[in-house]
Amino acid sequence: MDEKKLRDEEENLSEETKSLISSLPSDIDCYGIKMFKYQGCWYDKHILQSVLNFQRGFQTQETDIVVASFLKAGTTWLKALTFTIVQRSKHLLDDDDHPLLSHNPHELVPFIEFDLYLKASSPDFTKFLATSSSPRLFSTHMSFDALQVPFKESPCKIVYVSRNVKDVLVSLWHFNKSHKGVAWGGENNDVEKCTLEDLFESFCSGITFFGPFWDQVLSYWRGSLEDPKHVLFMRYEELKAEPYAQIKRLAEFLECPFTEEEEQSGMVKKILELCSLRSLSGLEVNKTGRRWTGVELKSFYRRGEVGDSKNYLTPDMETRLDMIIEEKLEGSGLKF
Q1: At what angle do helices 144-151 and 213-226 cross, to 10 degrees?
Q2: What DSSP letter does each residue of 288-317 carry, written as one string?
C-alpha cells in the first residue's frame, strides 16, 4: 500500500480510536490483515472504528429487530426470511415487485458495522428499506456483548442463527476465495494465497473477523437463556431440517405469528419458496449484481448444505475442532 493511501485510511480513524488501538492486543490473520482485540473480539481497525461509532451513537427504538450471526452461518437466508415475515402485510408475496425479487437481502437489511457505521458516525437509515420505517430491521456479526452496549435496556428483538463451526469454516474459505481483488482490511490482499489450512489455523487460534467463533456463539446462547423473550437462538441445521416449524417459531418470537387463515392459504410455504437458495440464487440481481464493497452477490449463494465440510477437512482437522468446541462449550449446555 502506498503512503498516501495509508495516510488517507488513518485519517478516517478518530484520534480516540487511534489512541485505543495503540493499547489493544494485536495480531495478523491468515490474510495478512492486522487485527485488534477489543472487548474480547477481533476486528481490523476500520471495523473497530465502526463498532465504536455504533456503540457511542446508536439510538434504539422499542420495535427494533436485529438479525445476528457469525460469518457464513446462514445470514443471507435469515435476513430474507425475517424481512419477508415482518413485511408481509406491506409487501405481498404474490406481488411482482416484491423487494426480494429485485434486491439482495443484504441490500434490504443493512449490516450495522459494514453498511451503516463504517464510514459515518450518524448514518442515514432511510437509505435501506428495512430501516426506513418501524419496525427497523438490522443485521450484525458483532458479539452479543458488543451489541448490548446500546441495546441493553431496549425491549428490541434479537435473532441469532448458529451453524456448525466446520461448515462455517469451509463456507467462509470458499466465500473469501471468490473475491480476488476485493479490498479486505483496507488493503488489496490476495485472498487466494490463504489456504484452507491457513484459515483453519486462524479459526483454531480465534483470530478471525468477529472471532473467536465459540465466544460469539456462547454470548448469544447465554443471552437467549437469560432473556428468551428478547433473544432467540436458532440453528442453521434445524432451519434446514424443519423449515416450516422454524419460521413459525421465528414469527411467533417476533410477535407477528401466522394466522390460521395465512397457514391455510399456504403463506408459510410461499415464504419458504421465495427465500429458498434455489429461488434467490436464480434471480438476475443475485447472478450479476455486486455489493458496494465489490463482492459479487452470487458468492452469497453456494451450496448451503449441512455437513459439506467433510468433503474438505481432514479427519485430524475435524478432531481438533471437535476438541476445541468441546472444551470451550463445556458446562454451557450448548452442543453442536
Answers
A1: 50
A2: H-B-TTS-BGGGG-S---TTGGGGTS-HHH
Residue 311 C-beta-side C-alpha neighbours within 13 Å:
9
**Which residues does the annotation mark as catalytic?**
141
The whole-angstrom separation of Cα 163 and Cα 71 is 10
For the chain, list residues with pLDDT below 50: 1-9, 183-186, 188
- For residues 164 and 235, what is the distance between their CA atoms, to the nearest angstrom? 9
**Alpha helices of the chain — where are they, by DSSP H?**
3-11, 15-21, 45-57, 75-86, 99-102, 105-108, 144-151, 165-177, 196-205, 213-226, 236-241, 243-253, 260-264, 267-274, 277-281, 284-288, 315-329
Tell me the C-alpha distance between 202 and 198, whole Å: 6
CA angle 144, 146, 148 (to 5 degrees): 65
What does the alpha-carbon distance between residue 46 and residue 34 come to, in Å, rounded to a whole number? 11
Q: What angle do CA 206, 78, 213 make, to 5 degrees?
A: 10
C-alpha to C-alpha distances, 179 to 32, 83, 173, nearest whole angstrom: 15, 27, 10
Question: How many Å apart are CA 25 and CA 103, to the nearest integer?
Answer: 39
* Model pLDDT, residue 104: 86
- What pLDDT, on the 0 to 100 scale, is given for residue 302? 66
pTM for the model stands at 0.91
**Partner residues linked to 158 by β-bridges:** 66, 231
Three-state SS for 129?
Answer: helix
Lookup: cell for 293: 464493497
In this prediction, residue 8 carries a pLDDT of 43
